[in-house]
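Fold these two proteins, one after the other.
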Amino acid sequence: MSIRRGGAFHIIKRALILTRNVWIIGGLVLVLLAIIELASGIIVNTKQKLTTPAIDSRVNADSYRGATWTEDYYGEFGEITLRWKPYVHYQRKPFQGEYITVDEQGHRGTVYPRLRDSQSTPLRVFMFGASTMWGTGARDEYTVASLVGKILSEKGVAADVTNFAESGYVSTQEVIALLLELRGGNIPDVVVFYDGIGDAFAAFQSGVAGRPMNEYRRIREFNLLHESRTRDLTKMYILSHLERSNTVRLLQAIVRRLRPDAEFRGRLTDSGREAGDSATVEEDVVDTWIANMRIVKRLGEAYGFTPILYWQPVIFTKDELSEYEQKELEKKQSMEAFFLKTYAYMKRSHERLAGQHFHDISDIFKDAKEPYYIDFAHVSESANEVLGRRMAADILETTGK
């Protein structure tokens, strides 16, 4: 009996020692992780304070020519939030600022002198695109849509111009947005599509043409509250906290430093293809856009409106770059070859849009010596005026006004 007791005590003692050692090792690991997290936080926060401007860095774009309103503008820009919208994923919430207005329908405000002709109804112009048409970087009066309205008014044409653009949209979302208006009986006379960057960027990001931007997030979030995805919800909750940890943020910063394109090129799509691994993705971007514009042509024939289509400029198509613009280009250097190949294919393919009012204006700033870009995609108010005048002239010629 005593031998058995001694054996039992020995086992218990060993178990207690093992438990103690596990707790000690676990505690040391936790302390070590806490020290790493604390040190990472100090490094990340110090770096942010040293490198992150108090407000959007685009306030310093040389194309603003020292304007005094830019800081207040970007302060407003950062306050605007989004709401869910069926079929197109999202839309901005109503907002009223000094420089930016979003109405109750979620449309960017257009500001220009409205002419009213008692003998005829105003020319109804719908303008679609992504953030470049929405007017990122420009005050309400100086978006492309507002400037088109202003120039039409100067030419004596009464016009109602509506800006249906939204940041991050691709052309398929724009076509759906047009369909929703037509379904509701809101019929235009002229529809303008201004595209290129959004479709190309979304394809570069996912490796598949025709997807909405940031589609991988929608895939992760799909039906997440359903009981069948309880484990996924828990896992994503944990991962989201880990991703926000200082240690992970520091590791991500190191990876971005070593591989600037890793944010996109390392991501797998739901089809199992790695982003950017297809030699034909660039061509697929153009083919998809042309297919969408053919749908718009048929809608125009059915509903009695005229589509006018534009393939837009990007910083990679401008030869004369200022020092600021050159730095903005370098930030997106990893995308340059993809964009140039996509744009070159468009130049070889636009004959498929024969019979449509299509304009490739990707070279509109090619030889311009003055700075126009505030980042790789968005341009200044002075550049918007160049675009607005071109579009207004095309609208006048196309409609015979």
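Now the second one:
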Amino acid sequence: MAVRSGVRYLAPIALAATIAGTYVIVHDTVNSKKKAPTSQSASGPSAKSGAHHKGAKTARFYTVKSGDSLTAIAVRTHISLTTLESLNRHVDPNSLQMGQRLRLRR
């Protein structure tokens, strides 16, 4: 009977390590890209970061974030839903996309 060497287990272990490493790198990259638009919109004049600062003009635009709806944006920015819809006639309220800019005032 032939003695089996432990070397034959190296290829599957190397493959598993490569797959795990690739997953970690891709997962980290995807998460950092998801966070990037949020941090950019937080530094800009968004409603969540304070569209109504004392002494500052109210924001003219709102950048849509993940999970936003037109109703939630109206509540968050203290603008009526009808006003928001009339200012953004080109926007389909059922298909808001992350990063999309909505007009809040004229």
